[in-house]
Amino acid sequence: MTIRVIVADDEKAARTRLTRLLSMTGDAEIIGQCADGASTLAQVKMLRPDVLFLDIEMPEGSGLDVARAVTSKTGPAIVFVTAFDQYAVRAFEVHAADYLLKPIGEERLAVAWDRVRDHLRRGDPGTDRVLAALQELNTGKAPAYRERILATRDGRSTVILTADVEWAEAAANYVKLHVAGATHIIREPISVLEAQLDPLRFVRVHRSAIVNVDQVREIQPWFSGDQVIILRSGAKVKMSRTYRKAFQERFG
Amino acid sequence: MTRRALATTFGAGWLALLGMRIAMNYAGASGRPLPQLLMVIVPVTAFWLPVIGIALWVDRRTATRPAGIFIAQALIALLVAILEPWFVQQVLAGVGLARSYITLFVGRFDTNILIYAVIVVGDLALTRLEAFRVRERSAARLEQALADAQLHALAIQLQPHFLFNALQFVAESAHDDLPAARRTLSHLRGLMAQAFALERRVEVSLREELSFLTAYGEIQQSRFGDRFRLIVDAPDDVMSAAVPPLLLQPLVENAARHGFGSRGSGGTIAVTARANEGVLSIVVADDGVGPPVSVRDGQGLSVTRRRLERLHGEAATFKLVRMGDRTEARLRMPLREVQPIPTGDHSAPANASPVPLEPPGARMPVGMGMVLFWSGLMALVISATAVASLIGPAAAPFRIERLIADEIVGFPFWLAMTVAAVAVGRRLPIVRAIAVHAAIGITLTMAHVLLGDAVRRAVLGETYPLEAYQQWAVWDMLAYTALVLIARSHDLRDWVSEKAREEVALSAEVRAVNARLDRLHLMQADLMAELDRVIASPTMESLDRSVVEFAEFLRAQILPEPSAEGVPA
After folding, report:
1. What angle do CA B176, B182, B185 make, to 5 degrees?
2. In the A/B pair of chains, how many CB contacts fall below 8 A?
3. Chain A from 36 to 65: CB within 8 A of any B CB
4. CB atoms < 10 A from the CB of B48, how many?
5. Which residue of A has its CA nearest to B492?
6. Is B95 in contact with B36 (CB distance < 8 Å)?
7. In chain A, which among 201-230 make CB contacts under 8 A with chain B?
8. A178 within 8 A of A168, measured Cβ to Cβ
9. Which of A150, B21, B262, B272 is buried most deeply by CB count within 10 Å?
10. Omega into A143 within 30° of 0, i.e. cis?
């Protein structure tokens, strides 16, 4: 039984390479080659392949847009291909979606192909995995920010609503969260935390501080362009000059 | 701080005191002509010049100001308060006025102590200002060093898309035409070597930048054939202009991806550089139809922006403009030649600061400083008044109802003045807002005198002679000055110690980023040797395989490690 494949990449050499490597697997049949998002969509609808090898950096609707459009229970299994999209790779890893890195090596392709074959045999095109990865990558449209944070101390965990955090303070490689007069410690670098918080509400004001803008009561000048932010709780947070512009932009 | 700056600052302070005294006395009811006033006031105030010298000499004996210094200063202040009335007595005798020493001593004691206190507090504020300036400079240097290092680190990761796509192209084309694949690979090797050489510099000539761009263009041409055309148009007069390194390649890459990536026919990217009236303008234009720049592309473009800013500051501009179907990236920057500084050095500046930090043990809340200041001053004044009234007939015999009448206004006034001076001192700079400070000081002083006089009339039915109110005014102004200096320099010290802590963390971060860069650069030789080995692969299969292996090795090297952020405990 052959598996019907469409290969989508905007570079001819890349399509040739995939075609050549797939032909060595014995059971892959290339039924189409596309160079951009729009034609890939059209071909998939028309030819209904079993597997789609999809470069995510294509013009006219990126590979991710194509995947979003064709992923369904009856759609093809998708193997993403990328040269160096770290965000995408992380999402694929986390959600166990199939992907290949360029330049594609013979062994890597063989491993990926075995996986795809297995999935298809079990009637699982991997829709859930792909959708989960796509959702995570969908940061530009409906960003999902962390709403709760779990802080553990001495084996006891506390659930903190992110909106309640007044400010966060970096110390060594952990972060102190200041919530209603109490401090909680989470073992994460502050930059990781920052990336997970809603940038409209939480703003980095210092190398070692993130502030909830709803909690800000007053901003006083300090020295050399640095400022002191006074929170509603009375806490004082130092804002360094370098973060000032970004902070002020939050207030339009 | 240089001796000269010190002399200027305290000289100005002395002149202010002199001016204040002349103004007060001249406006007063003494009715004496100005020349006669000057003959007394100038020498009397000149007494303070050597005193300032002594106070500063003592104050700067040690950098950390142990408590012993303050005790020594208090003793000197007492000595000054004893000597000054004697000196004044002599000066007055010189113009034919006889005054008793005790009267002068009691009348001038508090002012003398306060003047000395202002000198000491002023010098404290000055040394803290010095520490502040030093820190400010070193902090700025460190921030720049970190920004530079991060920019370098970004440059190395800048175009991995291009790199890995090109490697895949080479691996595949080996099956078609082995010698051609080898040629492309050597171009790629040259491009990488050039990127390593360029990226460590702050600026390169446009000639170097364009030569890099052309090498890049050749590889793209091999990949896309006729679908990729790069036209560079730059006359000789712009070739030696200074530009940030690796400025244009991301723009061309961006134009190629969005401009015509999808068109079967491909397209042309034109890079045009022109010099006009001291401005170098560079335009990267595509002739294609493409979507607007997406958010994720922002990184490459923001690096371009940051590099421009680093080299030319605000003077450079960078705009993306849509012209119908076409997109143009327009860069404008000051036209100047490359400066002969072959900077490859982005090492962190030395962390050692010439100004020692005040010991953390000396930190106290500003309120506590105020309480200490006032109680010390009051203790001195009260004890000296007591001693004076014991050893001789005081000028104004002590009467409890007078004290009460004065303090009904005086006590709340001093409290309010302290609070106001601390609040203002913490918010406003001293020198730049000197007019505001003067206005506040004068207003407070006037309020004190008018209110005090009104209460005195109401309670005692009498009023002071004008000289007494002048004395109050001088007192108030001096006290306001001292309080503002204490409050401001206290906050200044906070800033300094905060920055000092931060610098430790910052330099650690700079070192970490630089260490990574250094590793990458050390690896450069390995990478090149590895590439040479790949190029020498005898068969198309072995070339393909070693390109894939090389790419895996490279990927492992350029992926950023999780950054160790935050302040080390």
Report:
1. 115
2. 132
3. 36, 38, 57-60
4. 21
5. A223
6. yes
7. 207-208, 220-224, 226
8. yes
9. B262
10. no
More confident residue, B44 or B559: B44
Cβ-defined contact of A102 to B132 (cutoff 8 Å): no
Q: Would the pLDDT of B295 be above 70?
A: no
- Mutation for B interface: A102, A175, A176, most B CBs within 10 A: A102
Identity of the residue in A14, A84, A220 whose CB atom sits nearest the CB atom of B427: A220
Residue A28 to residues A23, A90, B482: CA-CA distances in angstroms? 6, 28, 87
Structure confidence by residue, pLDDT tens digits, B207-235: 999 998 998 898 888 888 877 889 999 99
List of chain A residues whose C-beta atoms are within 8 Å of the C-beta of residue B566: 170-175, 189-190, 207-208
DSSP letters for B173-202: HTTT-HHHHHHHHHHHHHHHHHHHHHHTSS
DSSP 8-state secondary structure symbol assigned to residue A105? P
User: What are the φ and ψ backbone dihedral angles of B34, each rounded to 5 degrees?
Assistant: -55, -45
Would you give the end-to-end CA distance of chain B in angstroms? 33
A218 SS3 class: strand
- For residue B349, give the 3-state DSSP assignment: coil
8 Å CB contact of A171 and B261: no
How far apart (Å, rounded) are the C-alpha atoms in residues B494 and A218?
A: 19
Set of chain A residues whose Cβ sits within 8 Å of the Cβ of B174: none
- Best residue of A7, A9, A11, A40 to probe chain B, by most B CBs closer than 10 Å: A11
Minimal-distance CA residue of chain A relative to B147: A242
Beta strands A182-186; B242-243: pairing state = unpaired
CA–CA separation, B186 and B302 (whole Å): 30
Taking the C-alpha atoms of residue A181 and residue A166, their distance in angstroms, rounded to an integer, is 9
Of residues B423, B506, B426, the one with CA closest to residue A222: B426
Cβ neighbours of A73 (radius 10 Å): 9
In Å, the largest CA–CA distance within chain A is 75
Cβ-defined contact of B567 to A220 (cutoff 8 Å): no
- Band of residue B265 on the pLDDT scale cut at 50, 70, 90: low
Quickly count: other Cβ atoms within 10 Å of residue A104's Cβ: 21
Identify whether the C-beta of residue A67 lies closer than 8 Å to the C-beta of residue A19: no
**B47 φ, ψ (degrees, to nearest 5):** -50, -35
Task: Please give chain A's pLDDT, 252 residues, in tens.
Answer: 789 999 999 888 999 999 999 999 889 999 999 988 889 999 999 999 999 999 988 776 678 888 988 888 888 999 999 988 777 888 888 888 899 999 999 999 999 999 999 989 988 888 888 888 888 777 544 456 788 888 888 888 889 999 899 999 988 778 999 998 889 988 888 888 888 888 888 999 988 899 999 999 998 888 878 888 999 999 989 898 878 877 887 776
Determine whether the interchain pair A224/B163 forms a contact, defined as Cβ–Cβ distance below 8 Å.
Answer: no
Q: Please name the residue that has the structure tokens 């002349």.
A: B22
A219: helix, coil or strand? strand
Query: Measured between alpha carbons, how far is residue B328 from residues A223, B258, B292 in Å?
Result: 41, 11, 11
CA angle B117, B122, B125 (to 5 degrees): 130
First to last CA, chain A: 62
* Chain B residues within an 8 Å CB radius of A87: 296
Smallest CA-to-CA distance from B333 within B249, B236, B212, B248 is with B248
